[in-house]
Amino acid sequence: MIRFENTSKTFRRHDVLSGIQLAIGPRDRVALVGSNGAGKTTLIRCLLAEYTCGGSVSVNDMNPRRQRPEVLSKIGFVPQLPPPLKMPVGQLIRYSARLCNSSPQRIETITSGLNLDVRRIWRQPFNKLSGGQKQKLLIAIALGRDVEYLVLDEPAANLDPDARHVFFSLLASRQDSTAMLISSHRLDEVAALVNRVVELDQGRVVLDEQVFDTVDLSSRMMCTLTLTRAGSAMEKSLRSWGFAPATGALEWRGSIPGPDRLRFIGMLSRYTALLAQVHMQAESRSTVVPDRDETAATTGARTA
């Protein structure tokens, strides 16, 4: 179990994370969404003990800073930005395999599936590779070992379409055995993988939504949105979903197909600064995103 308890982080008196309450269990596959600057990468770096933070973070009841080797042995990590390593590719693969109790052959097999021939770049320094080559190699290292958790920060950002397909197929093969925390701007890409969506905005959890593995293809969800102010770009997106103003210009209503719920939430995540409240209801189930003023009291509450 990964736990964030009242986790906070401040840079130059600016609160990047504010009182995060979040638990990720062994069967959770979480899409971590939010706009740039929402705190997604900072949260991940606190988990990996790259940053000190207020409150507490734990992995299987272990402290990542005090028990870092034990914690990192449980986690496969793909960073958003590749590290500036000068180590040759072959040496990096052998070192990573030895460190992670894996085998170089297993890592090479995954790189081959991602259409990266590491033998051609075996002696090249890692920092001289292209962005796509770096990303494929880091993915192969993360997936080339048996771990309890995969933590992926924009993992498909530099991948070509074929490699993206292979990558998400590899993740799908692990979804029954490995908990996942996937930070991504493209919720539609990970929609088929995840069973939970957590949205950050200004360092707070503003949405924690359980996504059911099986969705009635004929279901629809009624949705009411309250905006903080009128915004032409968001209004255009809402109209494309068939929404229309209800009471004044700040309240919008419409319905969405149940299977498109994740794609709709992904659209909303681009406009979190304009959202005061979201209410979604299907049959007898309802989901409410609290008013911004109530967020401090309700962040971290899981809803379905």
Descriptive tags:
Rossmann fold, Alpha-Beta Plaits, six-stranded mixed beta sheet, five-stranded antiparallel beta sheet, 28% helix, globular
Describe it.
- This protein is α/β, with parallel strands linked by helices and 304 residues long.
- It folds into 2 domains: 2-201, P-loop containing nucleotide triphosphate hydrolases (Rossmann fold), CATH 3.40.50; 214-298, 2-Layer Sandwich (Alpha-Beta Plaits).
- The chain is 28% helix and 29% strand.
- The chain is built from 10 helices and 14 strands.
- It has helices at 40-47, 68-72, 89-99, 104-113, 131-143, 161-174, 187-190, 232-240, 261-268, 295-298, and strands at 2-11, 14-24, 29-33, 54-59, 75-78, 149-153, 179-183, 196-201, 204-210, 220-227, 244-245, 251-257, 275-282, 285-289.
- It has a 6-stranded mixed sheet with strand order 5-6-7-3-8-9. The protein has a 5-stranded antiparallel sheet with strand order 11-12-10-13-14, covered by helices on one side.
- A hairpin with a 2-residue loop joins strand 1 (2-11) and strand 2 (14-24).
- Helix 4 packs across helix 5.
- The two termini are 20 Å apart.
- The model is unreliable at 284-304 (pLDDT under 50).
